[in-house]
């Protein structure tokens, strides 16, 4: 067996282990009884340690050296070698006992967070979150020493390979300076437009679910390889060819669940479209989280808040809830779905105020990883930061620093990819609509295939063959350009004729 074949077989087994972990983690978040948390934490910790041991196998270095000298490898195989080396380098920085301790701490912290969030009780979460943060700092330090990076950059690198805080600081400082004034402009322009007529609930959960399933089907989701469920925090997870997503329902406002479903379906479409021939190899994985978030935000914010989409969806909404009246017309729904409003909750935020939520979290997690702020001060720092960026202060911690699961689940370094993803989404949607003249008209008919086909070719089917910058440049003709995102915001929110 060649060295490359040995590597491919070995990492295929690691992928199989990852699939098992993914389904167990999904069950923990969706269906597992609370009393099983301790046992599940032990099981997940063992599987993660076994996976880590496989990823640092002493044979990998020799296989890589021999495979590098193999002149018969093609472009995909060469790209896979580069990804294997990247994964192996990071994993060898972590001792097995740190992987095990972190996995157990995260499993228990996630369960504690669910109750603490419901009770708006940050103090109840503080001990377990303190342990997760301590272990994340250790992991950041260990990876950083191996990679020559700061602890935060080393954690960021897990979600955005090659990403650096210095570049994000520059970008986010520019956005933080731009957005307050733009938000005022958008609110002023909105004030001169007719208020959308009211629509009244309640909206039964089963009717919301049925509507969500219809929209998922229109977007192109393959129900033979996934499912829709309910969780405390919406997410997309599961395993290769078993891509599961969740939402949460509010009987008083069906749009929260619907847009959550659309967002997570964007993630799922990416996962279902990854290259089948390399699905279980590192090169077949998604190319970092800014690209992943671009796929969810492209569907949720770019495509499904257009007039074309609302023209298609309005009859489905009326049928789902047996509704009629001016508030259910496509134009009124468009005004509702593009309404700018300062709010507390990130996942419910419009695309004008959304970046402020991300910038706040990014700045806070950087300070916490650098040990520049005690974790006990997080609620006060959160409230102060949101007031400075958006002009609102959460009335309690459930609507403040307890709203997201990312930190309890060990996702430190993840948050900046949301706004990087929003900018990338604007650039990709712009390029897709230019290349595929039927993309927007198709959305108006409920036919997402022109758009999805372009994304499959230029993003999904390429996996991790190219770096983030190269992938985006190949797809759009240029690297990430904030001007495209700003221009999109101006067209949609300052021009009433959009």
TrEMBL record:
It is an enzyme of class 3 (hydrolase). Coiled coil: none annotated. SUPFAM superfamilies: Metalloproteases ('zincins'), catalytic domain (SSF55486). It comes from the Bacteria. It catalyses: Release of a C-terminal amino acid with broad specificity, except for -Pro. InterPro entries: Peptidase_M32_Taq. Its EC number is 3.4.17.19. CDD domains: M32_Taq. Keywords: Carboxypeptidase, Hydrolase, Metal-binding, Metalloprotease, Protease. Gene3D superfamilies: 1.10.1370.30. The keyword NAD does not apply. One of its GO terms (molecular function) is carboxypeptidase activity. Belongs to the peptidase M32 family. Broad specificity carboxypetidase that releases amino acids sequentially from the C-terminus, including neutral, aromatic, polar and basic residues. This is Metal-dependent carboxypeptidase. It comes from Ancylobacter crimeensis.
